[in-house]
Amino acid sequence: MKSPLAQKPETATSATPGPVASFLRFVISGGGVGVLSSFAVTLLAMTMPWAVSNAIITVASTLLCTELHARFTFAKGRSAGWREHWQSAGSATAAYTATSVAMYALHLAQPSAGTLTEQIVYLGASGLAGAGRFVILRLYVFAGRRAQAGRTTRALVRQGKAAAPDPAGLRQSSSKAWPNGSRPELAA
Q1: Around Cβ 3, how many Cβ atoms within 10 Å?
Q2: Rounded (5°) CA angle 174-177-181
Q3: Rounded distance, CA 128 to CA 141, Å?
Q4: Which of 60, 74, 107, 168 could bridge 142 with an S-S bond, Cβ 3.0-4.6 Å?
Q5: Helix (H) and strand (E) counts for the chain?
Q6: What is the rounded CA–CA span in Å between residue 165 and residue 126?
Q7: Where is the GtrA/DPMS transmembrane domain (predicted)?
């Protein structure tokens, strides 16, 4: 007969990977999609303006990367929700702006830049934007609500704005505890 106090075997849970492991996963998944995106942008830019092709590929790659980051990079064990997609879209908008500005600057400096030069500039801008996205995704988008609440609580405590809650909720101020507002002293 089994003891009712016997411990149940632990089930495997997916713990959130540390910053180094997350960054390596981010580079593999985001970088892989980024390299494929750079070729797709170049091919699509042959049929339409570069900024339009960059926008189309940025939207598609952001959707794909947000799912990869939710499931693989930050090991949430689930699909990304609407909140994660919208927040990731905000960081992708900044990345789109960075790559567009870099390509615009390249074409101002060298109007007939070759495909290899465009690839180098695009991947360089994407790499810098990707490092910024990693920080945003790790600290805010996929941090989890408890981690974000913990940061908010610690910030409020440092500012002196958060009071420790009364666990029982029964404590009253001394003026309300006694009818005349003063607490009687007990003789020792």
Answers
A1: 6
A2: 65
A3: 19
A4: 74
A5: 6, 0
A6: 46
A7: 26-142
Sign of the C-alpha dihedral, residues 77, 92, 18, 22?
A: positive
Q: What is the pLDDT of residue 13?
A: 45
User: What pTM does this model have?
Assistant: 0.56
Give the Å distances, CA to CA, from 66 to 19, 41, 52, 144.
17, 19, 21, 15
Distance CA 150, CA 156 (A): 10
**DSSP 3-state of 3:** coil
Q: What is the pLDDT of residues 98-141, one digit of tens each?
A: 888 999 999 999 988 888 998 899 889 988 888 888 888 888 88
Give, to the nearest 10 degrees, the angle between helix 82-109 and helix 50-68.
140
Nearest to 90, CA basis, from 43, 140, 15, 41: 140
Task: Determine the Cα–Cα distance for residues 53 and 174; give it in Å rounded to an integer.
Answer: 69
Q: How far apart are CA 97 and CA 109, in angstroms?
A: 18
Task: Spell out the domain ranges in the chain.
Answer: 19-159
CA–CA distance, 64 with 27 (Å, rounded to integer): 14
- pLDDT tens, position by position, 17-75: 788 888 888 888 888 888 898 889 889 999 999 889 988 998 898 888 888 888 888 87
